[in-house]
Amino acid sequence: MEKKSCDAVVIGAGIGGLCAAARLSHAGYKIIMLEKLPILGGRYTYVDYKGFHLKRGVPALYYGEKDPALVTLRDVQGDTDFEMRPIPLPKWRIGGQDRDMPTKGMLWHLISLTSRDKQEEERVITALRRIFKWREPSDRITFSDWLAGLTDNKAIHRILNAWVVQIVGVNSWEISAGEVVRDFLLFRAAGEQLIPKNGLTTIVDSLAKVITKHKGEILTRVSTRKIVVRDGIAKGIEAKGPGGDFQIEAKVVISNVGPQKTVQLAGEHNFDRGYVEEVRDLKPLSGFNIFITSNGPLYDWPGGLYTFETRRSEVWIDWTLIWPEFGPKGKNLMSVYIKPERRTAYDLRKEYEAFMADLLDTFPRFKERGGEILLVRHYDGEWPFLRALPSSERHQRTPVENLYNVGDAVNPPGWIGGAGAAEGARLVAGDIIKRTRV
Amino acid sequence: MSIKINKSKCIGCGSCVLFCPTYALSVSIDNFRCKVDQDLCNKCLICIEYCPTESIEEKS
């Protein structure tokens, strides 16, 4: 078997793996990054399909100028000389009207719209301010249970559920109160979301360039079969590529394929039973994302439209209103995130039918505008929206020494998705640099 | 030889659909699994490379 060696081997070229590899190679580490698909970026890139430029998962730099992926590029002196366009805040359809939301104080505005009287309004707002400024609430109750302690007003519950779904993608009764607050505070501190020219592929390409500039190797179409562990220490990997099987010896192994797969690759017997169960209990976020095309916009402001008084909560965004290049001339491209009825065991067909009914209710001129479904996608299992919600930073270091996880299952508290994976990668790279010397 | 999609592994992510050069693949809205139109399929096997759940096989 061919043998290679390096300082750090990175399994998976998602945004977490790319950021870890870029930071370490910039710090002088010899990196080999392995990706089983023919392309890099995983759920953090864009691809071309029938003349449209489609996001695979993450659409934009979620935290704007402060986004960890952008910060990574700056830290490693990668190319950041590309245009970026902001995604304005969506309008909310409430009572059939499409309303602008204030950029500051949106939450207070939602509560003032739905409170029965001034006392209730003040009580709810005061309690929210306290959990934002003084101390986050418990993780042992859901956000909706926390709110039920303040009011039984169904309108407030409904609109705050809509607020929660918009930030974290799940209902307020499906997530802890503490998690909602952590995610919201980080999200609120960021500026507008930004889309680079050509989408997030630009970020992926810039990071890959940094890695190869520092003589790192990036190998695609390579499937890692085993993480080699001896005496509780990670020693490298075994993989299969187009040229056959090979081994890589490394001081550090960084896995970007999710903690569950990491355990499988290294062998369950190398972890204590408690850890294996913890990893099995990580809950992914599943759901749907559907691409719709039309001959002209289905709504006429840049940004998005948020509908929550429909059968399902949906965030609709027309990408061609921000980057016309994302579709052929005269065509508009919209995508919609659909929040299923429940987190697991939902009926796929029933969800799709609910969505189709919502589509025609929300855009009555859909057919008239040449509206078509371009692509329907379901996220789950190996290709989820998020590998774990809430994420678990504790799983960045694994029980196996020098075996790390990066990726959206192990984001630091409050950080969501791909941006969070980039932030987690910063911490992991920092930990590696502190502990090892090259 | 033909392409076969393992319905118990496929999650309907549509990755294969995005990369198929002959548009032979699509996501079924009946069961949210990917399906192949064998008449359009040119057996290039690109879909197998792009499937993140390794749900596509070559069958003789």
Q: Could you list some keywords that capture this structure?
A:
heterodimer, A: 438 residues, alpha/beta, FAD/NAD(P)-binding domain, Guanine Nucleotide Dissociation Inhibitor, domain 1, Polyamine Oxidase, Chain A, domain 2, 3 domains, 7-stranded mixed β-sheet, 32% helix, globular, B: 60 residues, alpha+beta, two-stranded antiparallel sheet, 2 helices, 4 strands, 17% helix
Describe this structure in words.
The complex is a heterodimer of chains A (438) and B (60). Chain A has 438 residues and is an alpha/beta fold. Chain A folds into three domains: 214 residues, FAD/NAD(P)-binding domain (3-Layer(bba) Sandwich), CATH 3.50.50; 100 residues, Guanine Nucleotide Dissociation Inhibitor, domain 1 (Orthogonal Bundle); 93 residues, Polyamine Oxidase, Chain A, domain 2 (Alpha-Beta Complex). Helices cover 32% and strands 24% of the residues of chain A. In chain A, the strands form four sheets. In chain A, strands 1, 2, 9, 10, 11, 12 and 18 form a seven-stranded mixed sheet that branches. Chain A has a seven-stranded mixed sheet with strand order 7-6-14-15-16-13-17, with no helix packed on it. In chain B, the strands form two sheets. A two-stranded antiparallel ribbon of chain B has the order 1-4. A two-stranded antiparallel ribbon of chain B has the order 2-3. In chain B, strand 2 and strand 3 form a beta hairpin. At the A-B interface, helix 11 and strand 17 of A face helix 1 of B.
